Amino acid sequence: MYCVITADVNKSRAVVDRSGLQKNILAVLREANAKFENDIAVPFTITIGDEWQGLLNSIAPSYQIIDFFRQSLTDISVSYGIGAGQVETSFMPRTSEMDGEVFRRSRNALNAAKKTKSEIIFETGNEPVDVSC
């Protein structure tokens, strides 16, 4: 079972220096990809605008990786959707070129986090285990 973390900056349209924001996110993603390379199946990349996503080999390191993002991006508010499940397509260099229940669950979790103003929501397909923080 794989894990996808999808993250999105909250109220990013209000950020004056959007170019600086994106450069900062890119630097943090490079650092995360290096630091957690043994846990990552497909590296974190920006998917659109100020949203990023990566595929992990398991759900186990997901909170540690989110904690790294939180400590590295202290000046912005970010929502995180974590999904667990299967990948239903071939592995590609970017998650945006892949599909499967793990991606759908991560997207559902991110949408729920933004809607409920939660920071993190897990969607694993096992309701008693799923968490919102």
What does this entry look like structurally?
The mean pLDDT is 93. This protein has a single domain, classed as 2-Layer Sandwich (Alpha-Beta Plaits). The protein has three helices and five strands. It has a five-stranded mixed β-sheet. Strand 2 (40-48) and strand 3 (51-56) form a beta hairpin. It is α+β, with helices and mostly antiparallel strands.
Blueprint (SSEs and pairs):
Elements: E1 2-9, H1 18-35, E2 40-48, E3 51-56, H2 62-72, E4 78-85, H3 101-116, E5 120-123
Gyration radius, in Å: 14 Å
Q: In the CATH hierarchy, what is the class?
A: Alpha Beta
Helical fraction: 25-40%
DSSP E strands, number? 5
> What is the overall shape?
globular
| Tally of separate helices | 3
**CATH architectural category:** 2-Layer Sandwich
What can be said about the biggest beta sheet? 5 strands, mixed
What is the count of distinct domains? Answer: 1
The CATH topology assignment is: Alpha-Beta Plaits
List the uncertain runs: none
Structural class: alpha+beta
Strand order of the largest sheet: 2-3-1-4-5
